[in-house]
Design a protein that fits this description.
The complex is a heterodimer of chains A (637) and B (157). By secondary structure, chain A is of the alpha+beta class. Chain B has 157 residues and is an alpha+beta fold. Helices cover 45% and strands 11% of the residues of chain B. A 4-stranded mixed beta sheet of chain B has the order 2-1-3-4, covered by helices on one side. The chains are: A alpha+beta (637), B alpha+beta (157). At the A-B interface, helix 2, strand 15, strand 19, helix 18 and helix 24 of A face helix 2, helix 4, helix 5 and helix 6 of B.
């Protein structure tokens, strides 16, 4: 890899990248993010490689990140010169020969693509580059264009601009799509203050949950006293139910690096750290690869773009502690200590890592920076709504048809995300609530379905933006159990430094466990509420301070479920094991006997082809009968 | 089989990081990768090599979830306890595994084959409920698949 130090060098790299993004021969791309691999993408990739070799085909095989719609993975994209890019969903090794036969013989499609892309959107440059040149080939007219797919229709991709399009291991492809041009612009044509002013003008707020203005933070750090300053990328995505940052680090690691280098130049830092979760091995590997490439090209290291600016980045792996997502705890962990937070009388931008000025931003915040520099803060602030500009990536998961990562403009109604993008609730069940903000957030009930999704509206509704987890719940989700789940999570993740969090959350957990076991008492809800107030006021860091949120928001919107558990010893959703009883529907049971064979305690009996029965005395309520019944005949009350 | 702790390995790891005290977490991770847990002898030796009190290493080792002070099985079963997995039946999956293996979460089977652990979100929320077994993610895992999956891993080892 040759050194890149001038605009000419950049253009050469971009030409190479374009040649591989729009190759002169057929190219096949396999979505190989963690979700793709878990769905079997590795097997598909291996089968493609073997078959291409065996048949001696002249086809380029490459890897890419995730396009977001995980429900249809493994995803294989085929790009023939001057034709639309075609995406084949749910690929298997068995389907590989069919696909390759089509490509080599030109025979009719034995398998149909899920959608096609006629052009590629080069967001950084603000232009479209066509895949399709000339007339649309016959037979592709029925294949929908990606922009017409419900899941993608209302999405706007800024942070995820390259995910699923480029090979994360190719710096040339990243450069071809406008990557590192923003860095060149920043160090060559802009002063640090101009960069900071542009980021302030963009209105970009921290995407990790805090929602603090990124530009203001940079400004404070720039003006903080001290010669040695640090920039840190928070990739400790600990919120359960959220994986936006994983997908970004896996699918487009250079965008994070570029954002950090621009930030470091503006702030005056020469050392940076990326703190990544231990649970994300592929993210670490792809970031490491990107770092090495950037170093080899001179985009990291000494004298970047001959500007005299030096900067380098180190990756540090976390070791599984949720609290390390908190800035001061993360910095303690970087110092090689137990990750305990400290009180923030002095902000980390003044005294952070090793007591030096440190600027920490989340992965998604960093990835937005290059676009802001390229297109201008004003352009960015035109996306989204006032006070919540730009887009936000959400992991739309749980009881929803189209599970996956979605990037939407801020302020979009929740309804659009759940029904238009998400395709509604599976099995015709009723939507009950959506949980946002992880253990610090809350549940938004169905009656607030028209709520615009932005920082302030979510906060007013008793939840928060958080890092972007959006877990959809239906009538079969118990809200008391959800509150108990989060509090139990926080008990085990509380670092134990301050009393309100360590003891208070522990006690709340005991009360919630009792309620779920049918041992709730009158006055428990009021006790939970008053304890919440004390914990919110008295805790040292945001983990404790926001810990009561899941309880308070479920009490606020689902008080009747608490009452059902406490007064009537009933779990209306049929989840809390101590309060439920499984039964068999007389009308639906066909007597197939599957449940009886699967039951681990042999408590289901009945003759073949006749109604079966469950012995409630022996039943351990493991739920396997319900999971395996094909006729939906198992009832729960 | 449990590996015995030898000084050369531990010294080698410390040397890789130049004995940097701020790399304590990374050094412990490498030691754990080597022995599948943090043996007491290795920690004692590490304390001497790095000039760090054993109590501080113990503090780190017990603070982070990734470390174990007791030997782990050959094959780690990590059940995701993320929110998406929870609403999609992750709790039933965990109790199913506990029943099938005859151990509770956090324990290792007597034959030293499996360790069952709960992990706070693997970031595969769209494939809930998931478990990671020996590094492989099993998507949409249901209770009735447990015996077949465990049998496969037993065969491999």
């Amino acid at each position: 890899m040759s050194r890149i130090s001038t605009l000419k060098d950049m253009d050469r790299a971009a030409q190479r990248g374009l040649a591989s993004l729009f190759p002169k021969k057929t190219k096949i791309m396999v979505g190989m993010a963690t979700s793709g691999i878990a769905s079997g993408a590795q097997g598909v990739y291996d089968a493609l490689a073997a078959e291409i070799k065996a048949k001696g085909l002249d086809i380029i095989l490459s890897k890419t990140g995730s396009m977001g719609l995980d429900a249809i993975e493994p995803l294989v994209d085929v790009l023939e010169p001057n034709k639309p890019r075609l995406s084949y969903s749910k690929m298997t090794p068995k389907k590989v020969p069919l696909l390759l036969d089509r490509l080599s013989s030109g025979a009719a499609d034995a398998i149909k693509p899920a959608y096609r892309m006629d052009a590629d959107d080069f967001l950084v440059q603000g232009e479209k580059k066509p895949y399709l040149k000339g007339k649309l080939p016959a037979g592709l007219k029925d294949i929908p264009v990606i922009q017409d797919i419900d899941f993608y229709k209302k999405q706007v991709k800024i942070a995820l601009r390259n995910c699923g399009t480029i090979d994360p291991e190719s710096i040339d492809e990243y450069i071809a799509r406008g990557g590192y041009y923003s860095l060149l612009k920043a160090v060559a044509d802009m002063s640090p203050d101009e960069i900071i002013n542009d980021v302030i003008a963009s209105g970009l707020r921290g995407r990790g949950g805090g929602g603090f203005l990124v530009g203001r933070k940079w400004q404070s750090c720039r003006h903080a006293h001290g010669d040695v300053k640090y920039v840190i990328c928070n990739g400790d995505e600990g919120d359960p139910g959220a994986y936006m940052d994983r997908s970004l680090m896996e699918g487009d690691p250079h965008s994070v690096l570029e954002g950090m280098i621009i930030g470091a130049f503006a702030i005056g830092a020469h050392e940076g750290f990326i703190y990544v979760r231990n649970e994300y091995p592929l993210a670490v590997a792809n970031l490491q690869c990107a770092l090495e490439q950037a170093r080899a090209c001179g985009l990291l290291g000494k004298n970047i773009f001959n500007s005299g600016f030096d900067f380098d980045i180190k990756i540090v792996k976390g070791a599984g502690a949720f609290v390390c997502g908190e800035s001061t705890a993360l910095m303690a962990s970087l110092e090689g200590k137990a990750g305990e937070p400290r009180a923030k009388y002095i902000h980390t931008v003044e005294q952070g890592l090793w007591n030096r000025p440190s600027n920490l931003n989340n992965v998604e915040s960093w990835a937005n920076v290059p676009v802001i520099i390229a297109r201008g803060g004003k352009w960015f602030s035109g996306v989204g709504v006032r006070h919540s500009t730009g887009t936000k990536v959400f992991s739309l998961v749980g009881k929803i048809n189209n599970v996956g990562l979605v990037e939407v403009p801020m302020g979009i109604p929740l309804k659009d995300i759940i029904y238009d993008i998400g395709g509604g609730i599976p099995g015709g069940k009723a939507f009950k609530a959506v949980q946002t903000g992880g253990p610090s957030g809350g549940c938004i009930p169905d009656k607030l379905i028209d709520l615009p999704v932005d920082f302030d509206s979510l906060w007013e509704a008793g939840s928060m933006m958080g890092s972007g987890g959006m877990i959809v719940m239906d009538e079969r989700t118990c809200m008391v159990d959800i509150a108990r789940y989060f509090i139990e999570f926080l008990v085990s993740e509380s670092c134990g430094k301050c009393v309100p969090c360590r003891e208070g959350v522990y006690r709340m957990n005991e009360i919630l466990h009792d309620i779920c076991r049918g041992k709730g008492k009158k006055g428990d809800v009021e006790l939970l509420e008053s304890m919440s107030k004390g914990i919110q006021d008295g805790s040292l860091c945001a983990l404790g301070g926001s810990a009561p949120n899941p309880v308070l928001s479920t009490i606020r919107y689902f008080r009747e479920e608490y009452d059902a558990h406490i007064r009537h010893k009933r779990c209306p959703a049929g989840v809390c094991r101590a309060l439920i009883r499984y039964g068999i529907d007389k009308e639906k049971c066909t007597g197939c006997g599957v449940c009886a064979r699967k039951c681990p305690v042999a408590c289901i009996s009945g003759e073949k082809k006749k109604l079966h029965a469950i012995d409630p005395g022996k039943c351990i309520k493991c739920g396997i009968c319900m999971e395996t019944c094909k006729f939906d005949a198992i009832t729960v009350e | 089989m449990k590996k015995t702790v030898d000084e050369k390995t531990v010294r080698g790891i410390v040397k890789k990081y130049d004995g940097d005290k701020s790399a304590a977490v990374a050094i412990l991770q490498e030691i754990q990768d080597e022995y599948r847990y943090l043996p007491k002898e290795a920690l004692t030796l590490l304390g001497l090599e790095m000039g760090v009190p054993l109590s501080r290493l113990y503090e780190i080792a017990t603070f982070y979830n990734a470390f174990s002070l007791t030997p782990r099985g050959k094959c780690m079963i990590e059940v995701c306890a993320g929110t998406a997995c929870h609403v999609q039946g992750g709790f039933n999956l965990m109790t199913g595994l506990e029943r099938e293996l005859g151990i509770m979460r956090g324990e290792t089977t007597p034959d030293g084959m499996f360790t069952l652990a709960e992990v706070r979100c693997l970031g595969c929320c769209s494939l809930a409920a998931v478990a990671r077994i020996d590094g492989n993610i099993h998507p949409y895992m249901a209770q009735d698949e447990i015996p077949r999956i465990l049998k496969n891993y037993r065969k491999q080892r």
